[in-house]
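Provenance and format

Records in this collection were gathered into a single text stream. Each protein contributes a sequence line and a C-alpha cell line. The two records reproduced below are adjacent in the stream.
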Amino acid sequence: MKKLFVIFLLFYVATFFGQSRKGMFQLDLTSNQHELYVSLPEVVLDGTDDYNRLVFETNSALAQLQEVYGMILEKGIPISDDKLEAMLATSQKLGGDLQKISKLRTIFKVIIPNPTNERLFELATQLELIDEVEYSCLLSLQPVRPPFDIAPVTPNFELFQTYLGANPGVNMTFAWNLNVTGSGIKIRDIEYGFNKNHEELHQINTFLATGMTINSAASVDFTEHGTATFGTVIGHKGLYGISGLAYGATEMILFPEWQISGYNRVFAVSQAIANSVLGDVIIYEMQTGGQGGQFVPAEFNTLIWDLTAAASASGIIVVAAAGNGAQNLNSTYYQNYMNLGNSGAIIVGAGTSNLSHNRIFYSTFGTRVDVQGWGENLFTTGYGDAQNIGNDFNQYYTNFAGTSSATAMVAGCVVVLQSYHFSLTGGYLTGPQMRTILKDTGVPQGNAASGNIGPLPNIQAAMQAIYDNYALSVATENTIEFTVYPNPVQNQLTLMYGSEVSPEAKVELYNALGQLVYQSTLSQAKEIDCSTLMNGFYFVKVTANGKSTTKKIIKS
C-alpha cells in the first residue's frame, strides 16, 4: 500500500484569517435548491489514493457524518492544477499572498442523496462543529436576479452618453483624445447572457466562452442585462449608436452563470479565472442575498470571496457590484464578512448622474465599497426602452441603471487605465493598486453621511497619477534648472534658463502616453508652438551634459 500523508493547516487558518470563518453560511431565501461546499485541511495524496477514503479514515467525526448523510466529496473548484501553479508563479513575482491561491485546493463540494435545503443546512451546521473544518458554504442553484435592472440607419447616440465627458462624467474623452482606448486588455464578464448580434457588438471581439452555453429559460430581462454591460464597456465606436468606454479593448468574453446544464455561479467564476492572466479584468455583474435577502456583493458568500482573493493575488483585477440592497456593510450583521479583510476586488456602488454624486438610496454601502459609477441615466445597448430602431431587437438601446450600470462604467475606466499603464511601463497594475489610484484621484462623493460609496473615477486625474508615478520611477539623479511659461499654455510656450545651460541643450516634448511629439535644441526652441497640439498634459524635458529635468505643462 502506498504511504498516505495528511496535513492539517490549522496554523494557516488561524494566522491568515485572524478569526473564525464559521457561522457565515446561509440559505438564499428566494431559492429552494442549493449546493454545499466545505473547506477542509489540505491533504497530500500519493499516487492514485482516494481522497474520500483518506479523509473519512483519518477523521472519525467526518466519518460519522458520512455514514449518516451518505456524503461524497468532490473537487470544489474546477480550475486545473496547471492553472493554479501558473497563478502561484505570477503571485510570487508580484509579491502576492500565495496562500490565497493555495486555499482553492482545500475546497470541496459535498454530494448527498435528497439534497433538500433542510438537509443541506443541517449538514453544514454539523460540519462546522468539527475542529478541522474551516467553513461550510451554501450556494443557490437558482439564478440570482441581476443587479437591476443594419438597417434602418441608427443615429449617433454619443450625445446621450454624457458620462463620457468631464464631471459629472468620468472624462473618458480625455483619454480617447490621446488614443487611449483600452487596447491590449482582455475582459471577462460574469452574468447570464448578451446579444452578440447587436449592431454595436457583432463586428468586434465579443464572445460566449468556449464550451459554455446560455440557458434557454434565461429571459430577456436577464440576457439583455449583459447586452447593456457589453455596450457600456466595449461597444463599437463608429458613426452610429453608442461607443463603449474601452472600445479599443482586445476582447470581452461572457462566462454565464446559468447554462443549459443548470445554474452554477462557482463554475462561472472559476472558469473566468481559469481563462484569465495577469492584467486581465473580470467583471462581477452579480449580487447575492444578505440580511433579510437584501442584495450585497457576490463575495459576501465565503466561497466567492476565496475565488476573488485568489484571482486578485495572481494579478487579475476584479470589478464587482456592491448590490442593490441598501445594506450597510459596516453593520453588525456583516461583521464576519468585513473581518475576512479585503479580497482585492474593486467594489462599486451606485451614485447619481449629477454633480452631487450622492449615493442612490438602493445602493449597498460601507467602507468596503470603493468607488461609485452612475446608477441611473447611463445610455447604452439593450432592452429597447430608450430607443428602438425599426423595431429591430439588434438595434435596441436603454438607460441602464443600478449598481450594474455603475460597475460597467467603472470597469470601462479600469480597462482604459490598465492599458495606459502598460503603454508607459510594459507592466500591469494590480487590483489594489488600481483601486488606490481611482480613490485618490476621483471626484468626491456628496452627502457621505448617507453611506460611503466612494468617489467617481476621474480619468484625466488618474492618468496624471499614473504618469507621475512612472516619471518618478525613471527620474535621473542629476538635474538642470529651467522654467516654462505660461502654464497652462494655449499657443506659445517660452523656456527660460540660466547661463550654465548650453544653448545646444536638447529640448523634447512628450505627450501623456510618453510619445515624443517635438524635439529641438534650446538655441532654436526658446519658444515652442503649442497651438496645434490637442488639449491635455505634456512634459518638457531638457537634457545637457548628462543632466536632465522634466516639467509638466497643460495645453488648454
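Adjacent record:
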Amino acid sequence: MDTARSTISNLFRGEPSTYTRFSLAEHMEGDNSQVEMKLSNSEMDDEVGNSMGDHRDPRIMKPKHSPKNICFVIVCTLLIFLIGFLIGYLSYRGRMPTKEQSCSNADSVPCGTAEELSEDDSDTTVEATPFLEWKQLKELLREKFLLSSFESRIKDFSVNREAGSEGDQTLALTVYNEFKSFGLHSVWNDEHYVKLQSLGSTPNRVTLLGSGTTEVFESQKGYLAYSAAGQATGKLVYANYGREEDFKNLASMNIGVNGSVVIVRGGKICFAAKVANAQKVKAAAVLIYLDPADYDNMPENTEVFGHVHLGTGDPYTPGFPSFNHTQFPPARSSGLPSIPAQTITTNSARRLMSKMTGQSAPSEWKGTLSVAYNLGNDDNVQVKVEVNNVVAEKMIHNVFGVIKGLADPDQYVVIGAQRDSWGPGVAKSAVGTSLLLEMAKALSALVVKDGYKPRRSIIFASWSGGDFGSVGATEWLEGYLSVLHLKAFAYINLDAAVLGSKHFKASASPMLYTLLGNTLKEVSSPLDSNKTLYQNIGSQSWEKQTIVPMAMDDASYAFQAFSGIPSVSFSFTNDRDYPYFGTMEDNLNNLNTRTGNRVDIIARAAANVAGQMVLRLTHDHELSLDFDRYNGELYSFVFKINRFAKQLKKAGLTVKWLFSARGDFDRATETLKNNILNSDLNNPRICRAINERIMRVEYHFLSPYVSPKDTPFRHIFYGSGPHTLMSLLENLNRMNSNTSDVDIVVLQNQLALATWTIQGAANALSGDIWDIDNEF
C-alpha cells in the first residue's frame, strides 16, 4: 500500500515517472532555462503497463490463502491503481496544451517559446499561451491607437532637427528613451560619420546680367545639397519640369541648351533627376523654382531646400557603410552632379522670366506666374549662378528597438521613419516619427499585457539623414548587406503617411499588393467609419487607383532596389500633391488645412494600416508575401519584348531562352503553391523551409552581374542602369526606329543577363538543387 500511495501521490502532482525525449530551450534574454518535454502515446501506454504490473511490497504480511480474500485484494489493488492513475493523468493532461492550442492556424496566435525539433524530427510541445483570434487581435490594436494623441506628438516634434544637429541628437535620445520605456526586448543605436553638404559662410547668389543692368538674388536659407560648388554663366533657357521629354522637345524646337543656365519648375520628378537630365544635355547650371500652378497657396518668398544626389546614402562612400572605423577608398557616387544647382523663390523666378524673350513656350508648359512663358536662349539675357555650399563630416544616429519573435526570431519585419528635417518637417518626418513611437508602444503592449506572441521579430527604426537622400537607412543597409536579405523579409515606411484626407496612395513591391489589399478591407475609412478603405477606393480597380511608382527619394526605394527586401510606402493625400516639402511651410497649420483639421483621425487610420500589416506578417505560419505576383510582372515584360522578335531574329538574337526562363519561374511558383497546400505548416521545420524560399524571391531579382558599389540599385524591375528590363526595352525601341543607333553586342549582353537573372530567381524559388528542372 505504501507503493500505491506513493504512485497515486506522484500522479496527482502530474509527474510522470519517466521521460524519454526532451529539449532545452533558452530564453532569449538569458532567463533561466526551461525543459520542454513531450510524452508520446506509446510511452504513456508503457507507463500504464508499468503502473498496473506487480508492485507488491514484500513487507506486507500474507493473508490467508482464501480464494475469496485473494480476489478481494486483487480487485481492491487494481481499483486503487486505476483510480489513482486516471486522476493523475487527467490532472496532468489538464495542464498541458492540446495540439490545437499548441499549433495555431492562420487565424490564431502562434504559441509560446521557440519551436524546436528533437533528433528524430518530432515536434516538441510548447507552453500554453493566451489564445487570441485574429478578430480579437486587430480590435485590441485599434483600441490602443484610440488612446494615442498623434497631433500632440507631432507638435512636440516640430522643432529644428537638421541631420547631425543638436536638435537631431536630442530627438534621437527621446526616441531611445521611449523605446526603453515601452519594454522592448532590446534598444540600441548605430553611429555613422557621413558627409553632408550645407550652406557656406558666403551666400549662394544668382545674378541677372544684360540690358545694362545687374540684379542679384541671394539665398538666405534655401539650397540644394550635393550641388557642385562654383560658378557658371550662360543664357537663360526655360525647360518646363526638366524631364527627359522636355529637353527633347527643346531640341526639336532648335533651342540650344549646351552651356545655358536652365530654369525649371518643381514637380513631376525629383530635384536630382532634373539636374541629371540637364547635365546630360550639357547645361551649365540649373535653377529650380515652385510655380503657383503646382504649389498653390505658397508664399512667393518661400525658400526651398532639397538635394540633387541621384542616389541614396552618403555619396562619398558609395557601396560602403559610413561607420567610424571603416577605411574608405577614394570614391564618389556617379549620381553626384558636376554642375551648380540652386533653388530660387517664386518671386525671383517671376523677375528672371519676365526678362526672357524668344519663342513662346508650349501651352502645357505655362504656369501661373503672370509672365509670358518664353523659352529664352537670348544672348542679351544671361545669368550667373554661384554656389558656395560646403561639405562637412557629421555624426548621425539611427535608433532601433525590437520585439523578438518566438518561433523565428532571426526573421523580422522592419518599420522605419525619418527623424531629421530641414525645417519644421511636420508631414515629412514628424508624422512618421509619431506613428513609429505609437506603433512601438501599442505592439509592445499587445505582447506584454495582452499575451500576443509574434512568430517573427519586429524592428522599429528611426533614421537620420533622410533629407539628404535616405542617408541613415542606406548606410545601415550597406553595413549589414551580407545578412539583411537573409533575415529582413519586409520594410514598411511611415514617412509622409499623412498629406491629406481624400485618397489613399501606395508604392510597394508586387509581393505586398495582396497583403495591402486585404488590410484595406479591414481598416475603416477616416472619412466614413461605416466604410473600409477598400470600399472607399472601389474594389473593382483598387490597384489602379492606389498603386503609384516608387520614387528614388522614397526611403523604401533603397530597401527594394538596393537590398532586395519587399517594401511599401503609403500616404493619405488629396487631389493635388503636397506642396510644402523642403520649406518652412511644412508646418502643423498647413497640414491641418490639408486634412480638414483631422490629423489625429487620419494618423490613426495610417497607424492601423501599418499595424495590421505588421501583425499579419508576424502572426501567420506562412509569410504574407505573394510571390505569385511577379508572374504577372514577368508576363507583361516578355509580352513587350515579343513585339521585337522579328528585329531580334534579323540581328541573330532570339527571345526563346527569355521565354523559357519566365516559364520556369511560373512553374516554380505553381510547385511552391502546391507544396504549401500539401504541407503541414504546424511543423516548424517545414514551415520555415517554405518561408525561406518565399523571402528570397525579391532578392533574386537583384542582378548578380553588376557591382553594388558601381551600380547600387541592382533590381531588374525597379533599379536603375543598363542591367534593368526597362533599359533593355529602351534599347529595343531604339533598334526598332534605327538599327544603327544600337550596339548589338550590348543588346545581346542585356538579353542574356536578364534571362539568367530571371532563371536564377526561378531556381531559387524551386527549392533544393535536386528539385530544379534542369531542362533549360
